[in-house]
Amino acid sequence: MSYPPARLPQTAGAYVLVISLLRPTPLPPTRFDGLLGKGIYAYIGSAYGPGGIRARCLRHFSHNKVRHWHVDWLTANCESLNAFGWPDVKECELVRHLLSLRDISVAITGFGNSDCQLCPSHLLRLEKPFHKKELSPH
Fold first, then answer.
1. What angle is formed at CA 85 by the lines to CA 32 and CA 121, rounded to 5 degrees?
2. Digit-coded pLDDT (tens) for 54-108
3. Are the CB atoms for 114 and 6 separated by under 8 Å?
4. Using an 8 Å Cβ cutoff, are 47 and 55 in contact?
């Protein structure tokens, strides 16, 4: 499912935020320097807390949030944001699947996956727009 987040499942699982940047955007200064170039990006995350995928994505869509995660720097400055959710899917499984597709590559090594030893990044660059069916690991 995609935007609006209110239609996403309230169960645990993984999600993809498709973030469109029309201009270079500042990166979190605590770990990364500089700007992320304009383009379309996919951030892959997990949601296992109360409210599941829906609650986590609603937070990402909020304009009045403390910048806690790396992706908060991008969602605070993006021109458009879409969310897709997959109950009972692990985020690393989703990253591996997406990196197997043409026209998707690692955007910044180590972005959004400081607690993950399996993935090179949880931020990917999309060279073209994708639909949920194309992104789905199943």
1. 25
2. 999 999 998 788 888 889 999 988 999 999 999 989 999 999 999 999 999 999 9
3. no
4. yes
H helical segments located in the chain: 52-61, 70-75, 91-99, 132-135
Do 14 and 122 contact (CB within 8 A), yes or no? no
Chain-centroid distance of CA 126 in Å reads 12
Domain boundaries, the chain: 5-132
Q: Tokens 């109360």 belong to which residue?
A: 50
Give me the count of residues in the chain. Answer: 138
Partners of 11 in beta bridges: none
The string of DSSP codes covering 30-47 is TT--SEEPSEEEEEEEEE
- CB contact set of 30 (below 8 Å; sequence gap of 6+): none
* Predicted TM-score (pTM) of this structure: 0.91
Of the candidates 101, 103, 124, the one whose C-alpha atom is nearest the C-alpha of residue 112 is 124
Buried b (16+ CB within 10 A) or exposed e, 66-87: eeebbbbbbbeebeebbbbbbe
